[in-house]
Amino acid sequence: xxxxxxxxxxxxxxxxxxxxxxxxxxxxxxxxxxxxxxxxxxxxxxxxxxxxxxxxxxxxxxxxxxxxxxxxxxxxxxxxxxxxxxxxxxxxxxxxxxxxxxxxxxxxxxxxxxxxxxxxxxxxxxxxxxxxxxxxxxxxxxxxxxxxxxxxxxxxxxxxxxxxxxxxxxxxxxxxxxxxxxxxxxxxxxxxxxxxxxxxxxxxxxxxxxxxxxxxxxxxxxxxxxxxxxxxxxxxxxxxxxxxxxxxxxxxxxxxxxxxxxxxxxxxxxxxxxxxxxxxxxxxxxxxxxxxxxxxxxxxxxxxxxxxxxxxxxxxxxxxxxxxxxxxxxxxxxxxxxxxxxxxxxxxxxxxxxxxxxxxxxxxxxxxxxxxxxxxxxxxxxxxxxxxxxxxxxxxxxxxxxxxxxxxxxxxxxxxxxxxxxxxxxxxxxxxxxxxxxxxxxxxxxxxxxxxxxxxxxxxxxxxxxxxxxxxxxxxxxxxxxxxxxxxxxxxxxxxxxxxxxxxxxxxxxxxxxxxxxxxxxxxxxxxxxxxxxxxxxxxxxxxxxxxxxxxxxxxxxxxxxxxxxxxxxxxxxxxxxxxxxxxxxxxxxxxxxxxxxxxxxxxxxxxxxxxxxxxxxxxxxxxxxxxxxxxxxxxxxxxxxxxxxxxxxxxxxxxxxxxxxxxxxxxxxxxxxxxxxxxxxxx
Length: 684
Known about the structure:
The chain contains 24 helices and 26 strands. With 684 residues, the chain is of the alpha+beta class. The chain folds into 5 domains: 3-62, Helix Hairpins (Orthogonal Bundle), CATH 1.10.287; 84-321, DNA ligase/mRNA capping enzyme (D-amino Acid Aminotransferase, Chain A, domain 1, 2-Layer Sandwich); 326-444, CATH 2.40.50.140; 453-602, 5' to 3' exonuclease, C-terminal subdomain (DNA polymerase, domain 1, Orthogonal Bundle), CATH 1.10.150.20; 615-683, 3-Layer(aba) Sandwich (Rossmann fold), CATH 3.40.50. The strands form 8 sheets. Strands 2-13-10-3-9 form a 5-stranded mixed beta sheet. Strands 16-15-14-17-18 form a 5-stranded antiparallel beta sheet. Strands 5-4-7-8 form a 4-stranded antiparallel beta sheet. The chain is elongated.
């Protein structure tokens, strides 16, 4: 980018960040998550460091917080409430330690690691053992007086347990439990009021209520993490020692009956800190409150003081943040992908961005309806999301950052692969994202050329995946097609070892492995066979429904339209697609070719029926069974599996590190089973 464009980008970012900060801290009207705000701020900070000529003392990066609300009395902090420098990887923590070593060359510090709560930072002042006042961070120097609202928080002691000092100032975080947020949003929905986006926004909005009675209804909590001031002797003549370690402060907080984080640890070195970070990550999902990382402090207060402050953040403290599930990036281009059914799917390409632990450089835009709804253009700054095992998607366009150079996307008039004719067809709701399913149908674009290379190639990849022939990866299949060994999937089943070994870079052993795997997977259930055929609108569960209801391949081939539509969950769009597929002579020829080449399709009926009528969704990493094995056991017992948790989901089977499906199940009240509980369910 030209220097002039970089300058404009920096100015746009500053304007947007200041607007978000003002709405969040002053108007109590947050429009984006903290992850989005952090991502934009990080981009601005990186640009300012790379181009110091554009730095400004008025930049948002030089600030700690927003202005104090005019509706509240302002309180000046005796000890400034500083911000923390973020670290987004273990390498960044190692770099932080190296910088500390230069500042403290003779010191050998130890560390204290604790949870970084995702709430609202506040400070509480006690005089002679009695709660005097509570204030928000504000701009770091002056905060908002929230004394009356703090009094409604039951975990905040109004009178300290003796012995106590004459003056005590405690720093901590006001939080809202995940469970409480779900209850509040349920009530908000019933009343027709907007729901809170997350626990942090809910806590911030609750503590800023003018009427303390409204705050009390929100059932807020408070966790203490530091002592800013501790002076003199109180009524009980407590001799106040100077604490030598930050960890000592936590012990004092416990003695004064403040709630502190359950997970915290004194660490001899960063290796122990890393182990603690990994431990917290495993337990994060099950914590009652949201956290976004781990705070790592130099434990020795003398070293902490010597390290000093850089900007408005202490050098001796770092906030390790777990990879966000949302981030911002810039759309560089939009291209069209041709799927195995011929559907044209627009895909956004953008600057590689870290989201939920993965570097993301592209995401599907699904269809033109989604592009129009988002009003997304090439060059836009967008919010991308990836929660757990969810496929990355664009969820928002930040239109205020537009420069006027953005370009609208238009679907091509011809197939970008074969140049064939493009037609628009109604797409079933099952193919849409959760956001679009309420529309029931959508217009999709399809390549109509049956010999389109992309359709054939992707259909072939899909076919071998469903047959579980894992030795045949995409590159090998492409090579077989290029060399003329196969023209379709049926040709795979008559391949001989010597056909493969003549190809360069294919040895005897690899050829044996490929042909043995193909031979071992010639037998397949009817449901999987139907799914492998790649019939338009027929996914794994629809294929299973067809197989169970018709029993044999011959019955499905001869089925009338009305017979197909009688099956539960199959509507007119799917009915037409299935019927038309088996009316096509080329498709029937392909099926006969598969059977001639040795493929055996076994008839299918649900066995046992223990799980008949029940729908399961699987998430996380299972210990004993693979996902396919679990799906097969569910199928054999008469049950169904789904890809997303919804109102019709009966059970969620959750393994280690479950993704967003776990949150959705808790929100909907769906019963969650461990792998052990699932195995017990099907064994009885």
